[in-house]
């Protein structure tokens, strides 16, 4: 049997000791590097949370003075306040909002983004902080007598949607035979409906219902309720587990406080805010 002499044993012991000493140091450096690279750490050092969003009534809108208001605006402002930083809103066209997040234009998307499998391949989502659903509002003359999704599922029917939204996915799934008309701005889609150029608009509740109430002479709700239900989450860049953990904890805290429910009721269950934008 082979044996080691004293010098060899001493060398082995020294190497082992060096490795055992280096492992925690290396682990500590890696952990510090991960922390330094996290979005949360960057936001705290910068003192500003940059939020990507687009305008959707009543998620985010401009009031009469040009200031942003809405459910998402309240959420982002409360989040920044709890972090002890300022908030900077970065309005971005919805169709390009994920690429803008991935290139670092802002830190997080807080904009009524539905959690979807295809999106989750590109970004990481938090736990849901709200739930939304798709509704449909139709033109009284062009869609006269329509009372179900199947009535709209026809090649002669034109449906307007905002480009890049889950409304597009919903139409393709539930009304696949209808012709899609896509618009960069949601307001353009509703204007086309008011002008009688499309049969209906599919969009996130509650705006379709608000439009029907506001323009009863030209619009109506063919369905009694939303025809989808989808969870809504913050979106962040992949690999940033520190940030996801913090956002999830924050959502849990304000949910248990009842604050999210109160804000949701104000913006989605009442029209007390209408004077701000009309």
Automatic annotation (TrEMBL):
One Pfam family assigned to this protein is: SBP_bac_3
Annotated PROSITE patterns: SBP_BACTERIAL_3 (PS01039)
In the record, which residues are listed under signal peptide? none
A GO CC term attached to the entry: membrane
Instruction: Alphabetically list the UniProt keywords.
Output: Signal
- The chain positions of domain Solute-binding protein family 3/N-terminal read 48-271
Q: Where is the Ionotropic glutamate receptor C-terminal domain?
A: 48-270
Task: Quote the protein name from its UniProt record.
Answer: Amino acid ABC transporter substrate-binding protein, PAAT family
Q: Where in the cell is it found?
A: Cell envelope
Q: Which organism is it from?
A: Desulfocapsa sulfexigens (strain DSM 10523 / SB164P1)
Molecular-function annotations in GO = ligand-gated monoatomic ion channel activity
Question: Gene3D superfamilies recorded for this chain?
Answer: Periplasmic binding protein-like II
Q: Which PANTHER family match?
A: GLUTAMINE-BINDING PERIPLASMIC PROTEIN, MEMBRANE-BOUND LYTIC MUREIN TRANSGLYCOSYLASE F
Q: What is its main location?
A: other
Return the similarity comment. Belongs to the bacterial solute-binding protein 3 family.
């Amino acid at each position: 049997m082979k044996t080691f002499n004293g010098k060899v044993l001493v060398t082995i012991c020294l190497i082992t000791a060096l490795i055992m000493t280096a492992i925690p140091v290396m682990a500590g450096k890696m952990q510090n590097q991960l922390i330094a690279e996290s979005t949360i750490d960057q936001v705290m050092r910068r003192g500003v949370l940059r939020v990507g969003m687009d305008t959707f009534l009543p998620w985010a809108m401009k009031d009469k003075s040009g200031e942003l208001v809405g459910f998402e605006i309240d959420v982002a402002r409360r989040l920044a306040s709890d972090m002890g930083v300022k908030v900077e809103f970065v309005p971005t066209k919805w169709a390009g909002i994920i690429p803008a997040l991935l290139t670092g234009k802002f830190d997080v998307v807080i904009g009524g983004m539905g959690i979807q499998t295809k999106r989750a391949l590109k970004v990481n989502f938090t736990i849901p902080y709200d739930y939304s659903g798709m509704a449909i509002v139709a033109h009284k003359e062009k869609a006269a007598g329509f009372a179900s999704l199947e009535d709209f599922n026809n090649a002669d029917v034109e449906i307007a949607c905002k480009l890049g939204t889950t409304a597009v996915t919903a139409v393709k799934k539930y009304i696949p035979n209808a012709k899609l008309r896509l618009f960069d701005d949601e307001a353009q889609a509703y204007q086309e409906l008011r002008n009688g150029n499309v049969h209906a608009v599919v969009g996130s509740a509650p705006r379709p219902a608000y439009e029907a109430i506001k323009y009863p002479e030209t619009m109506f709700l063919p369905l009694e309720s939303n025809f989808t239900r989808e969870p809504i989450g913050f979106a962040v860049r992949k690999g940033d587990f520190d940030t996801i953990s913090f956002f999830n904890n924050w959502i849990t805290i304000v949910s248990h406080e009842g604050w999210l429910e109160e804000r949701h009721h104000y913006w989605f269950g009442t029209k007390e805010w209408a004077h701000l934008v009309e």
